[in-house]
Amino acid sequence: MQHEVRNRERFGRAVDHCVDARAVVARMLMVAPREAWLWREAGSLDAERGNLRAATAALVAAAKLAPDAPTRHRIEAEMRRIATRLN
Description:
Elements lengths: L1 H30 L4 H14 L2 H14 L3 H18 L1
Helix pairs in contact: 1-2, 2-3, 3-4
């Protein structure tokens, strides 16, 4: 029983951390909206929180801004992983 409580506490802290981190990334995107890596980070944080539609939207933006083909391919692979979770 205590083990379950500890796991819930850890998970709660992890979710809080993601929410805080996502808020920071959102503010950074206001300053630098053309940075693909920020959109990718936003997508990763949204996916980690379970907000898969927002994650997909952020990753689409990241793919459009990707500086090169290899980066774009990695982002598209991440989008496919999220798509499988949506279905």
